[in-house]
Specification:
Blueprint lengths: L10 H4 L1 H14 L5 H6 L4 H13 L7 H14 L3 H13 L4 H9 L8 H16 L4 H8 L4 H24 L6
Length: 177
Amino acid sequence: MTTPRIAPGTLRQQGPVNWGINKIAAGVMRLPELRLFTTLGRTKGLYRGWMFYSSKMMPFGSLARADCEMVIIRVATLRNCQYELDHHKRLGKRAGLDDALQAAIIGGPDSDGLDDRQRAILCAVDELVATKDIGDSAWAAAAEYLGERQLIELVLLIGQYDSLATTIGTLRIERDV
């Protein structure tokens, strides 16, 4: 990673609301700053809209938290986004994804240590990231385990973190660890 294209925002650049949100979020993660948030916080209301949208999928969506973290870890792996991996490996542990399971998720749907449900979800992730579509067989496999609302959220969650990986990479946001 090179020098950030846009530096994380100061209190003045983010505004007091975004700055406050970001201080609380950093405290929850036990970090001095979340560079992604303080960079995006510079967009003021757009940032808050993005946060609202994102939180409706994770952590307040219909997918189980462990499923969300599995999806995000896999997207981050496929997109080689270390920033996302740093945070979501930690959050994944809180959601019950131990080191062995995380290694299997990183390894992909054919890895040992995954159950059929996890494989089906990871196949959908891999296909959507690679082709911007989920084929009929992968869709049917995921649909064996997820309801219609969950399937919609799965597509939105994958797309959200794929887009976020693009944003992180393009803005050259530095890792927080």
